[in-house]
Amino acid sequence: MKKLSFSIALGGIVSALCILMMFSVGLFPVLVYVFPMLCGLLMYVLYYECGCRTAIVSYVSVSLLALILSPDKESAMLFLAYFGYYTVLDQYIIKLKSAVLQWVIRLGIFNAAVAASYFVLTKLFTAVTLDDFGKWTVPILLIFANIIAVLYEISFRRLSVLYEKKLRKAIFRRK
Predict the structure, then answer these.
(1) Can you state the angle between helices 99-120 and 137-162, rounded to 10 degrees?
(2) pLDDT tens digits, 35-82
(3) CB within 8 Å of 11: residues ≥ 6 apart
C-alpha cells in the first residue's frame, strides 16, 4: 500500500508540475520548447521511481489537460507528440545492442513526431504554414530540429545519470 500511495502522490505532483509549466508558456513564450523538454525529464523521474504504468497515466492526463488548458498549443503538441513519452520509451531503446540502430530508431521516432505535430498544428490549429516563408524553410528547420533532438538525447542521458547517482538520494532520502 505504501508503494501505491507513493506512486499516486508522485504521479500527481509530476502531473501538476507539467501542467503548470505548459500553462506558463503563455507567460514566458520564449520557453515554448524548454518546458516540454523539462516535462519529459520529470516523466523520466516518474518512470524511474514508480514504473511504466504510472508514467503512462501521467503522460496521458498531462497531454489532454495541456491541449485543453495551455494557451500555447505548440508546446502542448511537443509534449504530446514526443517529449512526454520519449524518456519512457528510450528505456527500452537503450536495451538494443546496436548503437547505430538505437540512433536510427530515436531519430525516426522524432521525425515522425515532428511530421505529425506539423500536420496537426497546421491543419487543425492555424491557417499559416511554414511553406509561406520559402521552399527551404521546412528542410532547414527539420535539420535544426534533428540537431536539437541529438543534443536533447545527450543531455537527457547525462541528467538521468546525475539523477540516479546524486539527486535521487537528496530528493527522496531513500535508496
Answers:
(1) 120
(2) 999 999 999 999 999 999 999 999 999 999 998 988 888 888 889 999
(3) 46, 50, 54, 55, 57, 58
Question: In the chain, how many domains are there?
Answer: 1
Amino acid identity of residue 35, one-letter, is F
Q: What angle do the packed helices 34-50 and 137-162 form, to 10 degrees?
A: 40
Determine contact, residues 36/83, Cβ cutoff 8 Å.
Answer: yes
Q: Which of 92, 69, 61, 59 is nearest to 20 (CA)?
A: 69
- Domain assignment of residue 70, given as a range: 2-172
What is the C-alpha separation between 134 and 118, in angstroms, rounded? Answer: 16
Q: Closest Cα partner for 104 from 159, 153, 157, 55?
A: 153
Q: Which residue has the higher pLDDT, 145 or 119?
A: 145
